[in-house]
Amino acid sequence: MTVGLKSIIVKLLAGDNDWEETTMKVKWITLIALLALSVTSLAGLPSLTHGVRAATDLPVYADTLATGWQDWPYNSATRNYANASPVHAGSASIAVTYTGGWSGLQIGYHGENLDVSAYDTFRFWIHGGSTGGQTIVLQINDAIEQGITPQANTWTQVDVSLLPMGSPRAVYNIVWFNNTGGSQPTFYLDDVAFVDSGTVVPPPPPSIGPCDTKS
Fold first, then answer.
1. Is-contact 124 153, C-beta < 8 A?
2. Within 10 A of 23 (CB to CB), how many other CB atoms are there?
3. Is 170 found in the same domain as 103?
4. For residue 209, which phi and psi values (nearest 5 degrees)?
5. Residue 11 pLDDT > 90
6. Could you give the number of structural domains in the chain?
């Protein structure tokens, strides 16, 4: 208990008190003690900005598809998993060209479910090529859909929350879907992974009942 808190309690108990006033002061002292305990407990938690990383990144693509991931053809789309330029990091990226409508880049986890419960975010970098503006919908299983419009001549990081999938959660396929009825210009993907963002949300302080403030 801090010196400041002790002095407050001493002042509350000082003087001649009748039973009702003493009861009220005891309630106030209890309230102060609970608040002090809550602050002490929360001080030991990681902050929202500097959360603890619970797991290392789980790669899906970094120069090549990670072990277990496979290319699953999806209608009229050409894919090059060893594209030399542009790249975000390393020596290769994925080049994707939609040559027909309602097509896509689809990668699957060899017919199995990959447990990603330790990760809260699906992250990748996307480059719109010389044109940009493609109409793309990212799909993870049948649980998540997010529209994406890549920028021309630049890499952009895209983070997609996995929390809507609940916990435990597993992934068996990922699709960058051509949400149009026609062809679209080439775009590029790189550094695809499941990550733990490290964000830790502290629990709410313990609830306490109403305090009698009658004097």
1. no
2. 12
3. yes
4. -75, 170
5. no
6. 2
Same domain, 83 and 11: no
At residue 202, does pLDDT exceed 50? no
Looking at the fold, whether 67 and 168 belong to one and the same domain comes out as yes
Q: Flag whether pLDDT at 43 surpasses 70.
A: no
Phi, psi of 121 (to 5 degrees): -145, 140
Residues 215 and 213: their CA atoms lie apart, in Å, by 6
CATH of the domain at 157: 2.60.120.260
pLDDT at 197 over 80: yes
User: Is 210 part of any domain?
Assistant: no
- Report yes or no on 214 lying in a domain: no
Please state, in angstroms and rounded to a whole number, the distance separating the CA atoms of residues 201 and 130.
41
| Host domain of residue 191 | 58-195
> Are 24 and 70 part of one and the same domain?
no
In a domain, 206, yes or no: no
Radius of gyration of the chain (CA): 27
Read off the pLDDT of residues 66-78 as tens digits, 9 standing for 90 and up.
Answer: 999 999 989 999 9
What region, left, alpha or beta, does residue 97 occupy, with left being phi > 0 and alpha being psi -120 to 50 degrees? beta
Alpha-carbon distance of 23 to 28, in angstroms, equals: 9
Q: What is the pLDDT of residues 170-193, one digit of tens each?
A: 999 999 999 999 999 999 999 999
